Amino acid sequence: MSAPKKLFVKTYGCQMNVYDSERMAGALGAAGYEETQDQAEADMILLNTCHIREKAAEKVYSELGRLRPLKDANPDLKIGVAGCVAQAEGEEIMRRQPLVDLVVGPQAYHRLPAMEAKVRNGEKALDTDFPEEDKFDHLPRGPKMRRAPAAFLTVQEGCDKFCAFCVVPYTRGAEVSRPAERLLAEARDLVERGVVEITLLGQNVNAYHGDGPDGVWSLARLVRELAQIDGLERIRYTTSHPNDMTDDLIAAHGEEAKLMPYLHLPVQAGSDAVLKGMNRKHTAEEYLRLIERIRAARPDIAMSGDFIVGFPGESDADFEATLELCREVRYASAFSFKYSPRPGTPAAGRDFVSDDVASERLARLQALLTEHQRDFQQAQVGRTLPVLIEKPGREPGQMVGKSPYLHAVHLDAPDSIGRVLDVEIVASNPNSLAGRLRS
Ligand code: 5AD
Ligand code: SF4
């Protein structure tokens, strides 16, 4: 048998790409590849890319430029671009950067082994189709290795919402849900490998509507069934659209102890005029009332969100409305971005706010969100939280775990990886909490 070839995968963007990268490595594993963390020894480098904002897309081209010396040193090195830039730009990538051998869109990953064979023959390979078959059915999982305690599981891909700023409906296509029984089987397999926390992923995960044995399952049903799996202790899901928060899903937050009290529910803006321009299909008030209902079902739930500032037409008053909404919700954590026009999206042609104004708004919004985030973190001090111990810390015996609210928690707890322990939070540091085991 020949020595395994080496694969180096670099992942950009969202958690769905993290999951996809794992599955691509599995598919190429079946074609004789072993993963490496050192790109200098790689026979194949795959960049799994993100197209959500201009900066993310441009990063790919600068990274490709940096790979030139490696390709000069090893002419057999093959370079591939996967993910949303691959989908959006296709052949253009090979034109702009001739050292790229392979371009594969997110729906065609199961065809990677055949594409790899082609590039080994010295040809170029491009596939940005949206095939009918479920790519995950055809992507091998790799050997039954022990896994880290927390894993991602993609349950749904694509989006039919068409927010006016967003490329996702174009790069990932229409909403497709994976069949429920396959997801349950995959979840059981993860648990057998040592996983205790699963985050269900989808661009619009709460729109999940997969075929089940007795009809179509909603996300709430899927969560309830997953919660029956012994050994699976925590369930999360992301990312959700407010309009798909059904009564059943809200109720599940109150009833399923395994469902973590943390919800990423982006609103993007706090002004109705901007929400309308964004085609979000709900008002600020409707969003706030929704959060009230979620909090009524699960009083200790923490909210997280995404915001865009400088969207075309955003006035000072509109921006103030965003700040006001944040003051009302008090997010435990939030991401905020300057609007970035994306080719082919409805908002791309509109006049946008000047970069100076957008930068100033972003700084103000981030200052407010950071203050709320710090307050929330500080409020954990003195509480006892169930913490999932995930990996060793820097000092011997020290561990790093995860709170229900996704905080990193540092503590002394030898030999405890994969366990959920009661931890008293003793301090709040800039990016983490410190805790000690409750005896
Ligand atoms: N410009 C800026 N931010 C964007 N997002 C999506 N598209 C754009 C864009 N064109 C943000 C949204 C989304 C998050 C994943 O990225 O806030 O929720
Ligand atoms: Fe993009 Fe999310 Fe809107 Fe879908 S719901 S178009 S993924 S921002």
From TrEMBL:
Domain Radical SAM core: 145-375
Cofactor binding, note field: Binds 2 [4Fe-4S] clusters. One cluster is coordinated with 3 cysteines and an exchangeable S-adenosyl-L-methionine.
CDD domains named among the record's database cross-references: Radical_SAM (cd01335)
Molecular function per GO: 4 iron, 4 sulfur cluster binding; metal ion binding; tRNA-2-methylthio-N(6)-dimethylallyladenosine(37) synthase activity
Every MTTase N-terminal domain range: 5-121
One protein family per Pfam: UPF0004
Cofactors (names): [4Fe-4S] cluster
Broad class of enzyme this protein falls into: transferase
GO CC annotation terms, alphabetical: cytosol
Binding site for [4Fe-4S] cluster 2: 159, 163, 166
Family according to the record: Belongs to the methylthiotransferase family. MiaB subfamily.
NCBIfam families: miaB-methiolase, MiaB/RimO family radical SAM methylthiotransferase
Annotated protein name in UniProt: tRNA-2-methylthio-N(6)-dimethylallyladenosine synthase
Species of origin: Pontivivens ytuae
Lineage of origin: Bacteria, Pseudomonadati, Pseudomonadota, Alphaproteobacteria, Rhodobacterales
